[in-house]
Specification:
heterodimer; A: alpha/beta; Arc Repressor Mutant, subunit A; four-stranded antiparallel sheet; 8 helices; globular; B: 503 residues; alpha+beta; Helix Hairpins; 3 domains; five-stranded mixed sheet; 13 helices
Chain lengths: 232, 503
């Protein structure tokens, strides 16, 4: 059974969510402040964290920062709807996706499943036959072990970043639209003002650095899309 | 902002004109009141005319035409000219010099001298006595003395009287000095000329030179605090913060200082109230979200449980509640947007970006709603239009206007989007084919929660905040947004947006 932690200071909301998610077949623990959340994560083996930004003692960002130093635990941020800054900051700090609050519980479940799917089965059914390791230039991506190498060095990326890079590398040299990337990697539709993919790409660029010729590895396409520049 | 100096010029011109008029009137009045006598020499060009007239006066027929030979004729008849109107020329009376030399109306020469029209004559003997015993005016005495000094005829003005002479004639073997006196009806003009010539020019010039800067300074002193206050008020109406301009006025001890201090305390109060209101709006919106979030999950639970146990199906009711939740949520989101945009202290960074690309993205977003109503877009824009601004704000502005247009557009209609660059600004126009808005209320559509009557009746789902948000976003960019009913037939509301390229 998938074990989740919800970190939110709204106790009633947490109870409701726990009830709802348990009915959807998840095992749900609750934490009502940042310190307790970190403590819980260190003591349990959660598969996913649902993290509210506004938390007493340590806010969501602090928790996320501390967490990312130790674990790749997938994180879904709960942000106030329309608050662009919170979203972008969360994604930049390594959250896998966000969901605006108040949220449609069905959508929450769908996003939880989308994130989990990326971790458990990084490849779709059709992609199972694809080669286990994709090598382009100095980048090597192992789709079974979920390892990413640049030259000899291992690069730490989140599951979502891995998934996005995987999509780009599979179609290296071709532009892929943001809609497509959102659908395939985040498991949802591209929303207005949605900069999730942009932030993940920006994180990837930082982690991978420029190509050997000094160019950006991932090029932005006018009109909203990205392209991995193939290097032979 | 355009600077207007109307009040300054009004005060300045009034003061200055008053002073100048005062000085001018003073000179005229004193000159009239003082019975001044002004004497000027007859110009050389007029001397022959004097000789000629003297010759005529010598002729006994001139005075002989009257019963009393020694009394000059009465010249009540203005048309009769005693010098020229007595028969055709003959030996005794040689032909007249060319008329312009005598014309009563035209100046004889450049100096403006008019040959006098002589109604009254004084005959002086060598001792300077009037032979008929008439009393002599002071001006006449002066004229005679003048003649005795320089042997030239003169003319003298005193009040409305014009004295001329002498005409030297020989009467009964005696030399007589004849002077004429006449009341001039058109002396006003002459008089002004004389006053002007007598006026102490240096005094006048210095008066003008001194009054000009003084009036200027006073006008400035009076109008500049008013303008400063006006600017401060204008600034306050824009940013709802007590502006810096008012600071120097606060130290003044006069009524302007009082006004500025009162203005400041009023502005402070308004600012406090407004900020409190904004904070309240923001806080309330945030607080409303928590129960809404719980309600949303609770409804999810109800749905879940209904699926498990389909004996009771409240699906329709639950759906309705979910929809209401979503509406309330989007309303709160927009309220928060407004609160954020009103909070000018939050400095949002501007970037350069392509407005055309943004427009295309927005069009794509709104397309889904439009397709449901079979509304099509018809866009005319350049390939690229770089603008310096906040993309999120401009996006929400344009999107709200466009969504509004789609909302009110009748099915199967067209929405026109036009973007053009007019040197100083970027013009964006969005025109729908909807019913338009009553002219009387057309500018109210940018107020929060304003909805035209028919929209209320239709029980529409719009939040009533979309265009208010658009206006705030455009204001933030120092742009202008306004609506008008399109003039072309078949067109409804036209929303115009003007944006400076570099706000």
């Amino acid at each position: 059974m998938t074990h989740l932690l919800i970190a939110d200071d709204d106790i009633e909301l947490c109870d409701l969510l726990q009830d709802y998610l348990q009915r959807e077949g998840f095992r749900v623990d609750l934490a009502h402040d940042g310190q307790a959340a970190i403590q819980n994560i260190l003591n349990h083996n959660y598969q996913l964290l649902i993290l509210d930004v506004m938390l007493p003692q340590k806010n969501g960002f602090d928790v996320l920062r501390e967490l990312r130093q130790q674990t790749d635990l997938p994180v879904l941020m709960l942000t106030a709807r329309g608050d662009q800054i919170d979203r972008i900051v969360g994604l930049e700090m390594g959250a896998d996706d966000y969901i605006p609050k108040p949220c449609d519980p069905r959508e929450l479940v769908a996003r939880i499943r989308a994130v989990l799917r990326r971790i458990r089965v990084p490849l779709g059914d059709s992609e199972r036959t694809a080669p286990k390791t994709i090598r382009i230039g100095d980048i090597a991506l192992n789709t079974l072990t979920l390892d990413l190498f640049k030259g000899d060095k291992r690069v730490e990326v989140t599951a979502t970043e891995f998934s996005i890079l995987h999509q780009l590398l599979m179609r290296a040299g071709q532009p892929i639209s943001k809609e497509d990337l959102t659908q395939r990697c985040l498991g949802r539709r591209l929303m207005p003002y949605d900069r999730s993919i942009d932030v993940h790409i920006s994180n990837l660029r930082k982690k991978l650095g420029p190509a050997s010729d000094g160019q950006d590895r991932i090029r932005s396409i006018r009109g909203g899309g990205y392209q991995y520049i193939a290097i032979d | 902002m355009k600077l207007r100096f109307i009040l300054f010029w009004k005060i300045f011109l009034w003061l200055w004109l008053t002073l100048i008029l005062f000085i001018a009137v003073h000179f005229i009045l004193t000159s009239y009141a003082q019975d001044q006598i002004h004497i000027e020499a007859v110009p050389d060009a007029a001397l022959p005319a004097f000789k000629f007239i003297a010759k005529r006066l010598e002729n006994p027929r001139f005075f002989g035409a009257h019963p009393d030979e020694h009394r000059p004729p009465s010249f009540d008849d203005e048309e009769f000219d005693p010098l020229f109107d007595f028969g055709p020329p003959n030996e005794e009376f040689p032909p007249l010099p060319p008329p312009e030399a005598f014309s009563r109306n035209k100046p004889v020469n450049e100096s403006g001298f008019n040959p006098p029209f002589l109604p009254d004559f004084f005959f002086l003997d060598k001792q300077g006595k009037e032979i008929h015993g008439k009393s002599l005016d002071q001006a006449l005495v002066l004229l005679h003395n003048q003649y005795l000094t320089d042997q030239r005829p003169h003319i003298a003005y005193k009040q409305e009287n014009l004295f001329t002479g002498p005409f030297i004639i020989n009467q009964d073997g005696e030399t007589r000095y004849v002077y004429s006196q006449r009341r001039l009806s058109n002396l006003g003009e002459e008089r002004l000329k004389i006053i002007w010539s007598q006026a102490p020019k240096q005094l006048l010039l210095s008066a003008v030179l001194i009054t000009f800067p003084l009036c200027f300074a006073l006008a400035w002193y009076l109008s500049s605090p008013i303008r400063r206050l006006q600017k401060a008020t204008h600034e306050f109406s824009l940013i709802q913060k007590v502006p810096e301009q008012i600071k120097p006025l606060l130290k003044r001890g006069d009524e302007f200082g009082d006004l500025a201090r009162d203005f400041k305390s009023m502005a402070d109060q308004i600012q406090t109230v407004l900020e409190g209101q904004k904070r309240l709006l923001s806080d309330v919106s945030h607080e409303l979200r928590s129960p809404l979030a719980r309600l949303r999950i609770a409804l999810g639970l109800v749905e879940q449980k209904t699926e498990d146990n389909p004996v009771f199906t409240y699906q329709r009711e639950v759906d309705q509640m979910v929809r209401e939740c979503e509406r309330m949520d989007s309303l709160i989101e927009q309220l928060l947007n407004i609160a954020r945009m009103d909070d000018i202290s939050s400095n949002i960074e501007t970037t350069e970006f392509d407005l055309c690309e943004l427009l295309l993205e927005i069009k794509k977003d709104v397309l889904l709603e439009a397709e449901q109503k079979h509304v099509t877009f018809c866009a005319a824009m350049p390939d690229q239009q770089i603008i310096n601004g906040v993309p999120i704000l401009l996006r929400s502005a344009v999107e709200n206007v466009l969504r509004n247009a789609v909302y009110y557009a009748p099915p199967n209609s067209k929405i026109k989007i036009q973007l053009s660059n007019n040197e100083n600004f970027i013009a964006l126009t969005i025109t729908d084919q909807g019913p338009g808005v009553d002219e009387a209320h057309i500018n109210k559509i940018f107020e929060p929660f304003y909805r035209p009557q028919y929209a209320r009746e239709r029980h529409s789902g719009g939040s009533g905040l979309g265009l208010a948000i658009a206006k705030r976003a455009i204001d933030y960019h120092n742009g202008r947004i306004w609506a008008e009913n399109a003039q072309d037939s078949g067109s409804g509301l036209q929303v115009n947006i003007r944006l400076p390229e570099l706000p």
